[in-house]
Design a protein that fits this description.
Layout: H1 27-31, H2 37-45, E1 72-75, E2 96-98, H3 107-118, H4 124-147, E3 153-157, H5 162-165, H6 168-191, E4 197-203, H7 208-226, H8 228-233, E5 236-240, H9 246-253, E6 259-262, H10 272-292, E7 298-301, H11 303-307, H12 309-315, E8 319-322, H13 324-349
């Protein structure tokens, strides 16, 4: 395993163009072809009937200028993962969100992590041995992900906990181990003919400088492990806390491939109050981002996002990641909202009811 790498700020990093491939198919676009709410809901519940095709690692998260952005209801993979892939060559409408810290909840990893965090500065050899064992468990978890249905296209967050945030050296070391494990598993899968795409999310940057440093760190590990061609195809987004500064969010959007506003960041109790606060925060962040990059993809995650789906749809968010507990209701509500919007557009074009 590689040694811990230094993360360097690079606020002037060249902005990557966002391009939309003509062949891109999204769940929302497929659903918009429906004639009724019932058929729209059926298509949503069938996950948009994903179609066969080769994995395209050049697919981006942006839209065609001037179009209403398709609203996606995507999978939050926690506790909702298929063990085996379906029919080969079937490509999903969007990525599945995989929260890296969920891997730390696995029994063996949880024990190793606790022991590693308990090691003092006077026990470097013991800490290194434990980190090596953590790496091997993370690699096994990454391999399981790539073999599952969610591994066809996954957006994985870098490991982050408040405990780690208070110890930056440990945070960097563990994220380094996670990236090594994830990319090594991806490389092994690729050599065996695997058909997967892994995108990364840098957790909770508060400024352009922080995100630039995180992005440079991820790209450095990816290039060393995977080589330039594969690493260049890896999309790197930012997982933002709802209380992120609006100006900062706009600046981060300049160099992020996509943004996810995380309603789970504050650990607020789900409900109407949390949903309303989250929707208000999302509207401010989205407005700031759109001023800088009109075609940027901004999604939301967490229970407050599911509760606030109608408001998030109304303000023009790209979509949400949903856990199993909220997914069915979210799919149906999104289908109905899309159908109503289409009917309103039809009525407006026809001059209204006669």
């Amino acid at each position: 395993m590689k040694g811990e790498r230094q993360q360097k700020d690079d606020p002037n990093k060249e902005e990557r163009p966002f391009k939309y491939n003509a062949g891109d198919r999204t769940l929302g676009v497929e659903m918009s072809q429906s004639a009724t709410v019932a058929s729209a809901a059926a298509e949503f519940l069938a996950d948009g009937e994903p179609r066969k095709g080769k994995v395209n690692r050049e697919r981006t998260y942006s839209r065609r200028p001037g179009e209403r952005q398709a609203f996606l209801v995507l999978r939050d993979g926690g506790g909702d993962r298929s063990l085996q892939r379906g029919e080969p060559g079937v490509y999903p409408a969007g990525p599945c969100l995989i929260r890296g810290e969920e891997w730390l909840h696995e029994p063996e990893l949880s024990v190793l992590y606790s022991r590693w965090m308990s090691c003092g500065e006077a026990e470097p050899a013991q800490a290194e041995r434990l980190l090596q064992r953590i790496y091997h468990r993370l690699r096994a978890a990454a391999a399981d992900l790539l073999e599952s249905a969610d591994g066809v296209w996954a957006a994985v967050t870098l490991l982050y906990t408040p405990e780690l945030a208070a110890r930056p050296a440990r945070l960097a070391a563990l994220q380094d181990a996670q990236l090594d494990a994830l990319f090594a598993a991806a490389l092994h899968s690729q050599r065996l003919g695997g058909d997967s795409r892994i995108d990364l999310l840098a957790p909770y940057p508060a400024s352009l400088e922080e995100f630039a440093a995180q992005r440079e760190f991820i790209e450095g590990v990816a290039e060393q492990t995977l080589g330039h061609a594969y690493a260049a195809a890896c999309r790197i987004g930012a997982l933002l806390a709802p209380d992120v500064g609006q100006a900062a969010a706009g600046e981060i959007a300049r160099i992020a491939d996509f943004l996810v506003l995380d309603g789970a960041a504050g650990e607020a109790a789900p409900g109407e109050n949390a949903a309303e606060s989250f929707a208000t925060a999302a509207a401010g962040v989205l407005a700031a981002v759109r001023r800088v990059r009109p075609a940027a993809a901004v999604l939301a995650a967490g229970a407050p996002a599911a509760y606030a789906l109608a408001d998030l749809y109304e303000i023009g968010l790209s979509g949400i990641f949903c856990s199993a507990a909220h997914r069915t209701e979210a799919l149906l509500r999104a289908a109905c909202l899309t159908w109503i919007a289409r009917q309103d557009n039809t009525d407006a074009a026809a001059g209204g009811w006669q």
